[in-house]
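Throughout our pipeline, every protein is held as a single compact record rather than as scattered files. This encoding replaces a full spatial description with a residue-level series of whole-number codes. The remainder of this section carries one protein's record, kept here as part of the documentation.
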Amino acid sequence: MTSRIWHLNGAHRPRRLTVCLKFAQSSSPNYRWLMGKRWPLIALAILVLASAASTVWLVGDTAHELQAVTVSLADLDAELFHLDASSITRRGPPRVWVLRFNSRIEAIPYHYESSSLDGPQSIEAWQKTTGAMVVINAGQFDEELNYLGWLKADGKWLSPHQHHSWMGLLVSGPIRGHPWAGVIDLKQANPNVVENYRHVVQSMMLLDDQAQPRVRDSDRSACRTIIAQDQDGRILFMVSEGAVTLADLARWLLTTGLGISRAMNMDGGIESQLAIHTSELELSLYGQYGTGTAVFDAGAGQIRYPLPAVIAVRRAKQ
């Protein structure tokens, strides 16, 4: 496949960039079930691929066009850039994309069942469903596609079950007198804090405010989705193009100069996805590497895996 960037004509038209990355094998429970019950989702992903034949792609080294560029997204009061993670990348492109929000946001989770959808959706389909300028994948789910931890949107529990080993919370939309949005560590906070926010997403803690990684060293590498908070209280979404281990990623975050105070790990591998649609830029990122080797070489770089749950972002009313 030829790598290229498409610039739409007109000064006020966005650039459309799509990084579609190859479907990769994983030994995780999610992947094992995928290779059994999830074949309908694979078929759906292939159908999405077929319907997207006219899409213009950005793949491979062409992404270096944005290597040293920070793209300001005025619609979101955010900035998009990527960092060199070659020191920790074990396979694939050594880039970690960072979307940093400079103003208050609401991070609203969606699940396909509560949204009255027939099934999981691609990240771009979720963007159209939610109407959000930014959509990112949520955390892990079970064999029946139920979310494994707390999930609350607009005050309604989409998943009321606490995962007792997941210590990370992304909260936003305070009900009264609480910080607007942030990453909360349940090792330090009372779980009842979830009652103070309209939107709650639970997942695994990656890095705490004592600069301590909250994951063990392992050789298991994959694409990763990270949601973090910096020392100024800003929320950051981060997606790795290449395969990295969680422990390496946690330690690397401390060296980036981003001032990360807390970070949580979301679902990874082929479920690691991010879509941005603003007046300045359209960008779609799809997870490339799981913890094994590619199983669909013919479709490498083109599979779009549908997600049962996502997080949509909208700017909060000041």
Remarks:
- Helices lie at 29-34, 39-51, 123-130, 246-253.
- DSSP finds four helices and 17 strands in the chain.
- The radius of gyration is 18 Å.
- The chain has one domain: 16-315.
